[in-house]
Amino acid sequence: MSYPKNQFGVPQYPDHDARKLFVLLSAIDLLERPTVSAIADLTSQNRETIDTDILRLREQFGVVLHKVGEIYHIESWGDVLQKDGVMRFLKS
Asked: What domain of life is recorded for the organism (predicted)?
């Protein structure tokens, strides 16, 4: 199944789709300064749901993320997700 893409070529997965979380995680890794605004601009995800989705990444996939000021940092991708595989969802 093909999904629409935003102006940056990022796939727009439905809210209930785990791949939407993978796009969020990939964006945090890719961006030089991953703030909520920068993540939302790149992914076209709703700014109000980003913190909730990050909590889901922590709970469901064991990802360790920290927010220092406004900037997110990935400490660990956890035991479930592999960075190379997840990054493909941002670029697919």
From this structure: Bacteria
Burial of 24 (0-12, 13-18, 19+ CB in 10 A): buried
pTM summary value: 0.91
Helix (H, G, I), strand (E, B) or coil at 75: strand
Q: Is the dihedral of CA 9, 69, 66, 57 positive or negative?
A: negative
**Beta strands 64-68 and 71-76: pairing type?**
antiparallel
Give domain 18-91's CATH number out of 1.10.10.10, 3.20.20.70, 3.40.50.300, 3.40.50.620: 1.10.10.10
Instruction: Give yes or no for a contact between 75 and 65, defined as CB atoms under 8 angstroms apart.
Output: yes
Report the phi/psi class of residue 45: left, alpha or beta, with left for phi > 0 and alpha for psi in -120 to 50. Answer: beta
> Residue ranges per domain, the chain?
18-91
